Amino acid sequence: MFNEKLLKISLGFILLLIIVGFFTINYMLNDDNSTPSYTSSPSTKRATNTSTDVKELSLDTIYINIRSQKYKILKADIALKLKNANSKKALQNNMDNVRNSVLQYLNAMDANGLETVSGKERLKEELIDMLESTFGYEIETIYIKNFILSP
Predict the structure, then answer these.
(1) Long-range pairs for 111-119 at CB < 8 Å and ≥24 separation?
(2) Domain harbouring 80, CATH code
């Protein structure tokens, strides 16, 4: 008798939980007649290192062996921002020579201290001086978008 009453109460409670769960799930899925967030495909944008600035030009990714006590390899994405758009066209036509000069400069320089912010600023200034004196381009600044030193 006691077991039958306990069984009926248990079954009633389980049925009540199923009904409440059904309505809760139904309510969560039908929020103001809008489609659930999991059914719509997310909009994806591909990240790139290319700039929309007309005076900026990327040197592509640079991988090079460097002279340093701590590090052996440098990977960097470097972009040059020129003072005028006309210089960009001239630099694009001479990109192979510019990239080669940057690679030779990085290979020959003492790379100790490049892991600091001041070291990166020093590198930017030295690259600007080298490119302006060698090629005559008017460079406003250099952006280092990705900079990795590896032992």
Answers:
(1) 111/66, 111/67, 111/68, 111/71, 111/74, 111/149, 112/68, 112/69, 112/70, 114/66, 114/68, 114/71, 114/74, 114/149, 115/70, 115/71, 115/149
(2) 3.30.479.30
Burial 126-139 (b: 16+ CB within 10 A, else e): ebbebbeeeeebeb
Pair 101, 30 in one domain: no
27 and 60 within one domain: no
Q: What gap in Å lies between CA 51 and CA 54, rounded to an integer?
A: 8
- Range 24-35 average pLDDT: 70
Q: If pLDDT is split at 50, 70 and 90, which confidence band does 18 have?
A: very high
Q: What is the pLDDT of residues 77-99, one digit of tens each?
A: 888 888 887 777 788 888 888 88
3-state secondary structure of 90: helix
